[in-house]
Amino acid sequence: VPALWAVLASGAGYLPVDPGYPAERVRLMLADARPAIVLATRETAAALPPDCAPLLLETCADAAVADTAPTDADRLRPLLPDHPAYVIYTSGSTGRPKGVVVTHRSVAALAEWAGERFGAEGLAHVIASTSLNFDVSVFELLCPLVAGGTVEVVADLPALADGAGPQRAGLLSGVPSVVSRLLAGGTPPVTADTVVLAGEALPAQTVHELRDAMPGSRIANIYGPTEATVYATAWFAGDRLPEQAPPIGGPVALTRAYVLDHGLRPQPVGVTGELYLGGGGLARGYLHRPALTAARFIADPFGAPGERMYRTGDLVRRRADGSLEYVGRTDQQVKVRGFRIELGEVEEALRGCAGVAEAAATVTTDGEGHRRLVGYVVPAAGERTEPEAVRRELGRTLPDYMVPSAVLVLDRLPLSPNGKLDRGRLPDPGPVVRAVRHVAPRTDTERVLAAIWCEVLRVERIGVDDNFFELGGDSILSIQVVARARQEGLPLTSRDVYQNQTVAALARCADAAAGPREPAPRPEAATGAAPLTPIQHWLFSTAAERAGHFSQALSVRLPEDLDAAALEDALGDLVAHHDALRSRFVPAGAAGAADGTDAGDRVGPAGPAGPAGPA
Questions:
Q1: What is the topology classification, in CATH, of domain 444-513?
Q2: What is the pLDDT of residue 615?
Q3: What is the Cα–Cα distance from 424 to 426, expressed in whole angstroms?
Q4: Is a pLDDT exceeding 70 seen at residue 115?
Q5: What integer pLDDT is reported at residue 608 of this predicted model?
């Protein structure tokens, strides 16, 4: 992070390179971008091509650090707002990744909007979990620092489920599917004043889960392609939560949003059209790709002369309140677990594999909404193609999130009457076919883990040598595995799942880390006084005069033949199980109020009945 900040402060721009990327992709990015200097550590330098001579950060002497900030007179070139601030490569439909060039002006506009929208207090402590290769990292790392805040860097959000990371933050951002998994255990491993959700469609259920888990948190659904400097539109949840998928909101500062038809004519409210973005947040274009830049960044007929707008490829419709509702895509770009993927790039890589004549790729969705990237190949004449060999070859050129979780071998690709690929007729991959011989679990730990994998991966049988990720597992599902394993007394972490990808290896890891296995203890009922949470302090200190505003009531028409005793018992069991339903606020001197519960509280005809006064 200091190196990134130093590059920007100097007026230069940076190109993030993930050392975990395949060597061929790293080579292509560096060859295309042609950076003047490559910064690396001794550890990360091993991922660079042999002909690259990096500047090692460990060798930079402290004496070389200036005592004062450079002035304009010290600069070899003038520092201008429209100079590049960073280049981030995204998936390309032709099989060649494209570098998006974003300027200092656009980054400054983003930081200004973030400061106004979230405030210095909201940006005082931000958890940064996004890889530098994705533009959300610009928001997580730069905006808090510009506002004078603190950034706490974690490996990734799933790692927070292990309980080793921070437990409180001012702002937390993440992909909805990952955040939803963090909430699956009931008590989130980290809470935040503001939760920013971006990267994929936001289900209404996730909004409700967040409000239940973090009642005082502000929830934001934010949309934006890399070409529009991270965020372009934003929606913030109010007191009344949506029953359907929430909108992506309205434009952020300096951004204009148009909903247009094929003739670039504005669409009326409620009519679907393509989203075009204009204003000061647009990227300069694609590095060394003038034709592609001209095709995607076109003249803005609604702006000042010379202004451009970006064709997003996203279909939206405008609601009556002016907010935008996301509908889908106009092309073959998809998102899986928040990663933007061009199916064309995956198909091009598939066609480049040994023995493959034709290829296709698509995304399938199961009954629980999990999206899965699937590849299809047709072998060349006389060739025999093995799915696992194809996946291994793809892993040498594509990032892991772009490698299909399953590859199917077909005699021919389904075509439409006009001879084009008919993606709708591509066969469902169904249960994953193992590439290894089935070996049944042999120990108690292996049997427990195999049962958990069967449940999480929705397969009938698991062998001890089956690979979690080859069976369709991912970072999100690994959270479920860890949670269920801990319920069975196995002290595992998400990192353990990544480092031990078979049942046999994970069982050895669990056995080595634990003593006698005992199921996780059932939490005892909470009793007695408890301190108020920060949001409760705020409620009683600033909103007591309108406390009724926060009350919620529900009227239910009961049938005449209702079994009142059974209903009372059911409600009583519910109240006994959930400590929060037995809590009440009572005066507690200077503290103003105390939150107390009693395990003996029961529900009667007139409501909860329990001892008077503080519990």
A1: 1.10.1200
A2: 35
A3: 6
A4: yes
A5: 47
